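Key result, reporting period 2: structure in, sequence out.
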């Protein structure tokens, strides 16, 4: 009797859990190709705007590291209001600055072991540079909502648990013109959106 009840309880749990999951969200996925075939992993896909909702900031600060004279990652998407940590993991000194109007800042030149931080209060593109090494460059994309994903090296992406609604899905890449696509997320299932970046 007891084991039957347990099974019943588990079954009810599964039904409730999966129906909640279905009512609340859908997924967006797809394939991305870029002209020339290289660097597709620097593409970022995001929902432009979701009205009437506040989104909690992540518990951990997103990070742009400096390793072997390179900013890692090259493209970092963050939710607006996020504080990004900029450690220096090299044995040489680096500087981090941005001339972008979304967030103009200069952290100065600092050695290994030091981490500096910047809070991004406005949405938009922030380009990162190092005035010691002109070849160093990276981008922080400050976004209105947490429904974003980087494209992987195979050109695939997936954004999970998106609330139902009509949205504009945007693709951003450091070397190509952005494109967008109107999408409708229903209460369940997934939407497939493919992109080809060619200019
Ligand atoms: Cu540098």
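The corresponding designed sequence is given below.
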């Amino acid at each position: 009797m007891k084991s039957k009840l347990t099974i019943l309880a588990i079954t009810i749990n599964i039904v409730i859990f999966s129906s909640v999951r279905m009512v609340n969200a859908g997924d967006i996925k797809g394939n991305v190709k870029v002209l020339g075939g290289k660097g597709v992993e620097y593409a970022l896909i995001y929902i432009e705007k979701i009205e009437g909702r506040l989104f909690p900031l992540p518990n951990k600060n997103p990070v742009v590291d400096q390793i072997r004279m390179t900013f890692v990652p090259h493209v970092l998407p963050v939710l607006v209001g996020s504080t990004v940590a900029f450690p220096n993991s090299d044995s040489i000194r680096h500087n981090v600055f941005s001339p972008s109007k979304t967030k103009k800042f200069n952290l100065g030149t600092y050695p290994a072991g030091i981490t500096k931080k910047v809070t991004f209060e406005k949405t938009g593109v922030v380009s990162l540079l190092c005035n010691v090494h002109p070849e160093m460059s990276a981008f922080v994309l400050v976004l209105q909502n947490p429904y974003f994903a980087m494209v992987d090296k195979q050109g695939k992406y997936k954004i999970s648990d998106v609330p139902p609604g009509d949205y504009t899905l945007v693709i951003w890449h450091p070397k190509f013109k952005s494109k967008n696509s109107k999408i409708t997320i229903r209460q369940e299932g997934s939407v497939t959106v493919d992109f080809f970046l060619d200019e």
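The longest helix spans residues 2-24. The chain is about 10% helix and 45% strand. This case is discussed further under Risks and Mitigation.
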